[in-house]
Amino acid sequence: MSLDKGPSTTSIPIGAPGKRPIYVGIGLLLTLMALVGFWPTYFGPLVQGTVDRPPLVHVHAVVYMGWLCLFIAQAALASTGRVRLHRKLGRIAIAYGIGVIVVGVLTAFGQFSRFIEAGQVEVAQRRLLGPLTDMVAFPVFFALAVGYRRRPEIHKRFMLVATTTLLIAAVSRMPFLGTPAPLWVFLPVWFAPILLAMAYDFMTKRLIHPAYVIGLGGLFLLRLRGNLVETDAWLGFSGWLAAFVD
Q: What integer pLDDT is reported at residue 246 of this predicted model?
């Protein structure tokens, strides 16, 4: 299945004045999802001044929300035809994306260490799987987006998929979905930004872009990671990690 939907981007502008800012709207949706998901456990207590979290968790929150703001800014620049500025900011975005990965891994292992030190080894093993696999999935789609940065039609779609990957934790915490939320409820909510972009593509171009198909397949597999928690392979690996902390 070819990802190339049209001529090389040397002849395709990233954005043009007056172009519908669909990705700006999707960026705002992603931000709203993050706020709703983390409001009960983080943003709400933060506003009330009652949040009690380690400093690294606050850094994690700032970096991840910053990524969403960067996504919106890039989408706005592209939709208004400010291609040169979009590309300059893109260089910063690549470094920032690497920072997202580093902070995500550090936060995951920081939480893991705290559970181990509190004697909650089994909880630590279960809790590590989610953020660790997030930091496997996000880099894959982020790397694809960077690799296709000279092909905007592919680049922007993989960037949306990469960003949507980060929302799995927020959606998992949405209380109105149930705990745990059934797969048939969870997936449409989590996939909503991508499904909206796909619907827009189909209405305006009569196409379903392969980048979205690949992305949804990858995200679906990521959601099934819970099946690994009790496997001997994961328990052995996470137990091996715990031995270094204990």
A: 62
Q: For residues 151 and 10, give the distance between their C-alpha atoms in angstroms, rounded to a whole number.
A: 8
Q: How far is CA 100 from CA 92, 159, 171, 173, 203, in A?
A: 12, 14, 19, 20, 33
Helix, strand, coil distribution of the chain in percent, nearest 5: 80, 0, 20
Q: Round to whole Å and give the CA distance between 161 and 163.
A: 5
- Measured between alpha carbons, how far is residue 219 from residues 72, 80, 191, 222, 231 in Å? 21, 30, 8, 5, 21
Comparing CA positions, the residue from 198, 224, 199, 225 lying closest to residue 212 is 198
Structure confidence by residue, pLDDT tens digits, 123-171: 999 999 999 999 999 999 999 999 999 999 999 999 999 999 999 999 9
Instruction: Report the C-alpha gap between 172 and 216 in whole angstroms.
Output: 17
Q: What is the dihedral of CA 10, 14, 17, 21, to 10 degrees?
A: 160
The share of the chain scoring above pLDDT 70, in percent, equals 91
Structure tokens at 128: 């590590």
For residue 222, the surrounding DSSP H or E stretch is helix 210-223
Q: CB under 8 Å to 134, separation ≥6 — which residues?
A: 104, 165, 166, 168, 169, 222
How far apart are the C-alpha atoms of 170 and 145, rounded to whole Å? 23
pTM: 0.89
